[in-house]
Structures are given as structure tokens and as C-alpha cells.
Amino acid sequence: MTWDRRVFGLVAAAVAGGGYAMYRVFKGGSFSITGGPSQDPTERYAGFDGLDPDFVSRLQDTLDTLTDMGYEPEVYETVRSEARGEYLKEKGVSQLGAKSYHVTGLAADIIDGRDHPDRSGFKVGWGSWEEANGASATDGDKSATTMAQDFFDQLAGVATQNGLTAGHYWGWQDSPHIELS
Fold it and tell me: What are phi and psi of 150, to 5 degrees?
């Protein structure tokens, strides 16, 4: 596969997260993730193998801009198998299932990788801390929710400027989702 030269500016470091492999994307260095998505529908994939090269270029520009703005974007999921798409649809997490642009290598989910204000070892992520596990919300949870809302507003704006479509603006609001359509 031929990649746009800007892709070689990535470094991916494996980070443990919820029992899955998660890859955090940084500017600079070298990049290597191989193998592509698993056929196990319960496993997510956050690498760049299988993504459309034009999408990767625009995605990298988006990630670089967000990083330059002081955010810490994390690539949460990229390419999905059709089986994973249907699995997520059955769980109510995906609207499109096997028809998602994730299946064709034209989409990624990006979350806020900044540290949670008061939960050691946790990231801001989606910012849904106030509802998490029925636990009482802390002041830090409320801050994390606000931080995530700001991050997703910025992600959507920057992605749109780079010619991507942002799920943040859809009727069902899929804020982490960006795609080349």
C-alpha cells in the first residue's frame, strides 16, 4: 500500500485501555501498525492499515491541528470488519452496522486523550463521566464532560476544514466519528 508522505510522521504507542489495544497518535517519529482489523467482532482496531490514503492524509492534518491547539486526540477505532459493524449495530452503538464507512476504510473515531481531572489513569474520552456506572459525579467528572464537549466541537470544525464529514453534526450526533464522504 502506498501512503501519503505525511503518514510517515506518525508514532503509535500501544496503551492499555479497557482490555483492548489502543493506539495513541503523536506527531513526529516513525509509524508502524500492521495486520488490520480482527475478525473477532468484539475487538476494535485503531491502526491505519486498510484506511484510504486520502483519508489518512486528511485525518493526520486534523490530528496535527488539534495537537497544535493543545488537545491530545486519540484514535479509538478505524477499520471495522462487517461482522464488527453488525455487532455494534446490535448493541445499539452503531446506526449503520456493516454499511458504515469504517468498513470501507473511510472513517475513524477520535476521542479526547487528555487526562481526567481527578480520576487517576483515566482519560476524558467521550466525556460521559456523569452517567458512568451510576457513580456519583465528581467536580472532575463535570469538568471532563465540559472538556470533551469542547474537544468534539473543535474536532468537528477542524475535520470539516480538512474536507471530512463530522458525525458531531448528524441528527444522532456521533461526535467521535469523522469520515471521508
Answer: -65, -45
